[in-house]
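Researcher: Good morning. I'm working through a list of sequences from a screen, and I'd like to move beyond sequence-only analysis. For each chain I'm collecting a predicted structure so we can compare shapes side by side. This is the next one on the list. No need for commentary yet; just the structure.
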Amino acid sequence: MERWNGEAARWAVRSIIPSFHLSLAFLAACNPATTRPAFAPYPEALHAVINAPPAAVTDSAKAWLTAQGPAVQHASALDGFLETGWYDATDSSAAPVRVKLRLWADPDVSGKSRVTVEAVFRPIEDPSRTARDLERAVPQDSAGQRLAQRLLKALIDKLGHTVD
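Model: Good morning. Structure tokens for this chain:
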């Protein structure tokens, strides 16, 4: 059996410590905690590239929605995500429908965000299924979809946009 001499032991310690510190730095930089949901928006959601970073888009959307009436249940400028609570979207041609809006603001090229706005409703309530399983995209001509369109237009008007 081979014994380590003093120099070999010092070399082993010196080579392990930097890689240990690098590992700690890597783990600290990769925080898996996010307030975004684990699901993606529905394909019917609205999309635009807005000329502002995700934090600015999220803050502007929160301010606009607060002024319009729907209560913002959750907003995170850091994560670029916003979600309203359920609210009654009334329409002169139909009964009120409980609707929820969500906004994802993902980084695009420097200083821009790829923004997705989704409006959903629940046609049924079933406690045995997950909440997302019960949600559906609102119809194109509904009051919920018009509110989502107005939100996206307000962001474009305030922050500008890039045509894809």
